[in-house]
Amino acid sequence: MEPILNVKNLTMKFGGLKALDDVSIAIEKGQIAALIGPNGAGKTTFFNCITGIYEPTHGNVEITPPGKATQSLKGLKPNYVTERGIARTFQNIRLFHGMTVLENVLIGRHCRLSSGIIKAMLKPSSQREEEKKAVYDSYEILEKIGLAKYVNEMAVNLPYGAQRRLEIARAMATDPFLLLLDEPAAGMNPQETKELDDLILWLRDNENLTILLIEHDMKLVMSLSDWIHVVDYGKKIAEGTPAEIKANPDVIKAYLGEESDDA
Ligand SMILES: Nc1ncnc2c1ncn2[C@@H]1O[C@H](COP(=O)(O)OP(=O)(O)OP(=O)(O)O)[C@@H](O)[C@H]1O
């Protein structure tokens, strides 16, 4: 079976700097995979190349959505990548703080509406049904993610961990088959991290999602991941199971160091 995401020989240059150097990574359907490596290794650049924020200097990104043919994402802008079924969250929280929790999720939903969210919000009668359905679907997502109690709160008033979960809810609203999470546990306390761990597992097991996460919390990475890819200075240096990665001398030297003791 084709991998759900097949990134082939990706190179991204910024002037003289090779942020990614011939990186190939395949993600299988239903996997929770992690992309790890030191600061500046190229992890976020990798996400940016997949999601159309950057056009890679070389290489190709192919997807095989469940039940569909393999297709290339070459040249697609971010909104078209989202439409193809890839959703992401960002390293720094990017919510619409002046909007409610529900409105933030509705914004994510708009790529699945035929009328577009703006028209739907203006409420010409032909769009009312679609708008109602979008609100219903968004509320359902909030329930699943454990945020329904905040539905009419302003996003800015949510506790930090809930804001991070709201980003995942908004990503879910785009109906993805592949979810890319960029440091989802950053800044979380241990309780929030535990809840995130449970949520990611739940999403994979109940929402049919494949998940690729960038994360520096090695305890979370090692407990959650089926498969781990490691980059350093833009190059892929290893891939394997958590046990293999923990024991890999190149990874220990480049990144894990003593951290591997508590993972
Ligand atoms: N738009 C850009 N222009 C120039 N250089 C960039 C750009 N984006 C990233 N870089 C550089 O590319 C390299 C990889 O950055 P990237 O953000 O992908 O690393 P990272 O592995 O995600 O790091 P971290 O773990 O700190 O988030 C860094 O040297 C960074 O400064």
Quick overview of this protein structure:
With 263 residues, this protein is an alpha/beta fold. It is 38% helix and 22% strand. A six-stranded mixed beta sheet has the order 6-7-8-3-9-10, sandwiched between helices. A four-stranded antiparallel beta sheet has the order 2-1-4-5, covered by helices on one side.
SSE layout and pairing:
Blueprint: E1 5-14, E2 17-27, E3 32-36, H1 43-50, E4 58-63, E5 71-72, H2 78-83, E6 86-88, H3 101-109, H4 117-122, H5 125-145, H6 160-172, E7 178-182, H7 190-206, E8 210-214, H8 218-224, E9 227-232, E10 235-240, H9 242-247, H10 249-256
The structure holds adenosine-5'-triphosphate.
Protein name: High-affinity branched-chain amino acid transport ATP-binding protein BraF
InterPro entries: AAA+_ATPase, ABC_AA/LPS_Transport, ABC_transporter-like_ATP-bd, BCA_ABC_TP_C, P-loop_NTPase
Keywords: ATP-binding, Nucleotide-binding, Transport
